[in-house]
Amino acid sequence: MRIHIHPLGPIQTNCYIVEDEKKNCLLFDPGEDGEALLSEIRKLSLKPVAILLTHAHFDHIGALEKIRTAYEIPVYLHVAEKKWLASPELNGSAKYPVFPDVICNPADVLLHDEKQLEIGPFKMETRHVPGHSPGSVCYIFEEEGFAIVGDTLFQGSVGRTDLPGGDTETLLKAIHEQLLTLDDEIVIYPGHGPATTPGIEKDQNPYLHGF
Q1: DSSP-derived secondary structure letter, 156
Q2: Are 117 and 127 in contact (CB under 8 A)?
Q3: Which residues are CB-contacts of 13 (< 8 A; sequence separation ≥ 6)?
Q4: Tens of pLDDT along 82-134?
Q5: 3-state secondary structure of 55
């Protein structure tokens, strides 16, 4: 598999495109700049299979409808945030007047906590990691050695918890139980900033000391 990383929009949210050897791909968190993202998909001659959301904050869904409409592919989201795509108040876009309200159609597939997920040729595990938002989901590609974790765990930090449904204690507990139990060397791809690993974060992340 190949992973293409595209920081999108003014908040530079990482959109990940995971590609297999036959040019099928999954898109994770198409946050903004829909035309640029479409151009990149076409340039790489990729065939999108699905859009997977780590959560439904506005900076992760800004280009959702443009990509979904262009390829007529399903959108996956945790059931705890099923109302968020259509609600600027819940997805956070209403909080920042400088950004337009983000309103999307409902997700096609609602995820329920941990499960094995198979989408076309792609196989992964989903883990529910609430705290940054109620429905934050991490997608684990264990055999391939990486995980896409949204705004739960960052290099040297953790997700903010001052938005609707956020809770610091819940987030730290979920990170400890769901992410720090992964292999120390698995590559963690976060919603913003550079990649890291559980081993590095156990060692160096000041927010996780004591866990």
Answers
A1: T
A2: no
A3: 7, 29, 31, 32, 59, 60, 191, 192
A4: 999 999 999 999 988 888 899 999 999 999 987 899 999 999 999 999 999 99
A5: coil
